[in-house]
UniProtKB/TrEMBL annotation:
Single GO MF annotation: calcium ion binding
Entry-linked InterPro entries: Cadherin-like_dom, Cadherin-like_sf, Cadherin_CS, Cadherin_N, Protocadherin/Cadherin-CA
Main location group: membrane
Topology of the protein relative to the lipid bilayer: Single-pass type I membrane protein
Keyword set, alphabetical order: Calcium, Cell adhesion, Cell membrane, Glycoprotein, Membrane, Repeat, Signal, Transmembrane, Transmembrane helix
Family annotation (PROSITE patterns): CADHERIN_1, CADHERIN_2
Keyword Chaperone: no
Pfam families: Cadherin, Cadherin_2
Intracellular or extracellular location(s): Cell membrane
Natural source organism: Crypturellus soui
The protein's name: PCDGH protein
GO biological process, one term: homophilic cell adhesion via plasma membrane adhesion molecules
């Protein structure tokens, strides 16, 4: 109750201080900064019920209730005694607190917690002092204490009694002793330098076994708690015949230092007591006096030699000091006690314990250096240098570990991350102590790197060339472009389109020729290509990923139209020829050429001139004389198309000659055209006129006849109309 009153006073002081702190925080907020204490400390009595509030943790850290969901206030320590309220931010008790169970006989009992807040990440240390309450009564090891006292013992003799044990600490374990009144005995308490109180029974008057052979008394041990608690033991004294010398130890207190983990059965120390009596009264036996079970589980004593050995494993981390009483008793039931102190020396037998807490399972690859990805807490149960620990990371990765506070470390990014090079980083946290030899522990830490859109699509080629034969079908595949994006998911999903139209006018001229499929990157012909109209064109294809913002790149596609033999030769001279279908010919008429009859062999008559719209072999032309009035009289040059006399002209040759020349290309299949050349053999133009007149008359008769027929029909119609008009006029006059 007194502890609770103190706590209420303490909370009242905190509330008064809290008002001042509010004003201070308001001033600090005006300057845009907030500070929280590096270490908080609370105190609470043991045996406090579950749900009891320990303290306003969020307020003491400078956090408002409205910010608690975003800051994610929580306890990262592996202690299950306390929890944090998600609504109020108060630190409260989550299970029963028993100081004796938690801290044993330690004078102080403190539970250290690590509190983590997010956004931004920070770690705070909180200490909760568990205050002792008087919840344990003093206890004697036996319900009855038997003593044998010789009748010849002189008054003033002292007989040490068993000390009671109280698990509480401080004033709650400070014992006082009371003895029921008896005229033959009184109680004295001897205080040791370590603060313990040894009750002793002092003989006040001489004993006479024949008058009274036994005594019954009650020894009461009372602690200093409020309210006090007590325990009792019955003392039974048997008066024996004379044994006037009690055993005497060589020391009143023995001390020993022994290393933990020594083999079972090792000698810890030897106590020695002597008795001046002879016979059985001088034979000394040794035993423990009122020692707790924890001591009996670890040590044993040889009743004859006084050798104290360990029967259980000594563990410095469980208990580093033992203090107990050893009793020496002679055959006449006289006894004496000595105190034994055994200090356990620490050895480096505990490897560090590593506790990891991942702040994030996945970190974006654009996270800046210094981003906290995990918290590491290291604890070594050893002490001194054996308990000093340092941490490092094993494995090549862009991560590093830095000390935070106390035994806490932060795993942070040391350099830029690149998911395309490594999508996951596996490192090993190694914690080593400074003992000799050093002990270490390892734990694996895995971190995934999430993708951001930091890579543009890359085409397999910077420029593509496609070759398409002309006269292709609309919708035919021209080419497939492909771009790869090293990113993942939507960031690496590539779509294609032509640059132009609404996005620009770079490919506006070429856009009607081709289209591109957005997903596959396949270019399709929009129309049939004509080599003679367009021999090549270029278009830019853009590849864009699905990221936000999107990234893109372009590639140039140059399309070359391949020529097919789809154009027949076109005769320019002597007249334009009408092209025929493949393998066919067309006939054209042309002007006359006059060749003197005195012409010799090789005389140039004329030259057939033709062109082909195709290219390459499809445009290579050859000339051939396919028909002539006198085949032996003329010849045609294969390559040039020149028409020359093959021999001298003779008088027997007809005056009018007709030549048909075929012009053929070298395509597959070949196309051709023909030209007709009329030649008149005459010395002069006057001599050639009769032949020309005959041909002109013969040539004009069809057209003239047609003209005359139309003219005659018109005249007949006019005469008919005139006759009708005259007849009507005559009738009118007659009437």
């Amino acid at each position: 109750r007194r502890g609770l009153v103190k706590m209420e006073r303490r909370h009242g002081q905190r509330r008064s201080m809290g008002a001042q702190a509010v004003l201070l925080c308001a001033w600090l907020l005006c300057w845009g900064c907030r500070a929280a204490p590096e270490r908080l400390r609370y105190a609470i009595p043991e045996e406090t019920g579950s749900g009891t509030v320990v303290g306003p943790l969020a307020r003491d850290l400078g956090l408002s209730p409205a910010h608690l969901p975003a800051r994610q206030l929580r306890i990262s320590s592996e202690k299950h005694y306390f929890a944090v309220s998600a609504d109020t931010g108060h630190l409260y008790v989550s299970e029963r607190l028993d100081r004796e169970e938690m801290c044993g006989d330690s004078a102080s009992c403190t539970v250290s917690l690590e509190v983590v807040v997010q956004n931004p990440l920070n770690v705070f240390h909180v200490d909760v002092d568990i205050q002792d309450i008087n919840d344990n009564s003093p206890v004697f090891s036996e319900a009855t204490l038997d003593l044998e006292i010789g009748e010849l013992i002189l008054p003033g003799a002292r007989f040490p009694l068993e000390m009671a044990q109280d698990p509480d600490v401080g004033s709650n374990s400070l014992l006082s002793y009371q003895l029921t009144e008896n005229p033959s005995f009184r109680l004295e308490v001897k205080e040791s330098p370590d603060g313990s109180r040894q009750p002793e029974l002092v003989l006040e008057a001489a004993l006479d076994r024949e008058k009274q052979s036994s005594f019954q008394m009650v020894l009461t041990a009372v602690d200093g708690g409020s309210p006090p608690r007590s325990g009792t033991v019955q003392i039974h004294i048997n008066v024996t015949d004379a044994n006037d010398n009690a055993p005497v130890f060589s020391k009143s207190a023995y001390e020993a230092r022994v290393r933990e983990n020594v083999p079972t059965g090792s000698l810890v120390l030897q106590v020695r007591a002597t008795d001046a009596d002879a016979g059985s009264n001088g034979r000394v036996s040794y035993s423990f006096s009122n020692v707790p079970d924890a001591v009996l589980a670890v040590f044993s004593i040889d009743s004859d030699s006084g050798d104290i050995r360990n029967v259980g494993m000594l563990d410095f981390e469980l208990r580093n000091k033992y203090t107990f009483l050893v009793e020496a008793r002679d055959g006449g039931a006289l006894s004496s006690h000595c105190k034994v102190h055994v200090d356990i020396m620490d050895e480096n037998d505990n490897a560090p314990e590593i506790t990891t807490f991942l702040v994030v399972d996945t970190v974006p690859e654009d996270s800046p250096p210094g981003t906290v990805v995990a918290l590491v807490n290291v604890h070594d149960a050893d002490s001194g240098d054996n308990g000093k620990v340092w941490c490092e990371l094993e494995g090549e990765s862009p991560l590093s570990i830095v000390a935070s506070s106390g035994s806490s470390y932060k795993v942070v990014t040391a350099s830029a991350l690149d998911r395309e090079r490594a999508s996951e980083h596996n490192v090993t946290v190694v914690a080593s102590d400074r003992g000799s030899p050093s002990l270490s522990s390892r734990t694996a830490l895995s971190l995934s790197v999430s993708d951001v859109n930091d890579n543009a699509p890359v085409f397999e080629e910077a420029a593509y060339n496609a070759y398409v034969s002309e006269n292709n079908a609309a919708g035919a595949v021209v080419l497939r472009v492909r771009a790869r994006d090293a990113d993942a998911g939507a960031n690496g999903r590539v779509s294609y389109w032509l640059v132009g139209g609404s996005a620009g006018e770079a490919a506006a001229a070429a856009a009607p020729y081709v289209s591109v499929e957005a997903r596959s990157g396949t270019l399709y012909a929009q129309r049939s290509f004509d080599y003679e109209q367009c021999r090549e064109f270029a278009v830019e294809v853009r590849a864009q990923d699905g990221g936000s913002p999107a990234r893109s790149s372009t590639a140039t596609v140059r399309v070359f139209v391949l020529d097919l033999n789809d154009n027949a030769p076109h005769v320019l001279w002597p007249t334009a020829a009408t092209p025929g279908s493949p393998g066919s010919s067309s006939v054209v008429s042309g002007p006359f050429e006059v060749v003197p009859r005195s012409a010799e062999a090789g005389y140039l008559v004329s030259k057939v001139v033709a062109v082909d719209a195709d290219s390459g072999r499809n445009a290579w032309l050859s000339y051939e004389l396919v028909q002539a009035t006198e085949p032996a009289l003329f010849r045609v040059a294969l390559q040039s198309g020149e028409v020359r006399t093959a021999r001298a002209v003779s008088e027997r040759d007809a005056a009018r000659q007709r030549l048909v020349v075929a012009v053929k290309d070298h395509g597959q299949p070949a196309l051709s055209a023909t030209a007709t050349l009329h030649v008149v053999l005459a010395e002069s133009l006057q001599e050639a006129l009769p032949a020309l007149s005959e041909r002109a008359a013969g040539a004009e008769s069809p057209s003239d006849l047609q003209f005359y027929l139309v003219l005659a029909l018109a005249l007949l119609c006019a005469l008919f109309v005139l006759s009708v008009a005259l007849a009507v006029a005559a009738r009118v006059r007659r009437a």
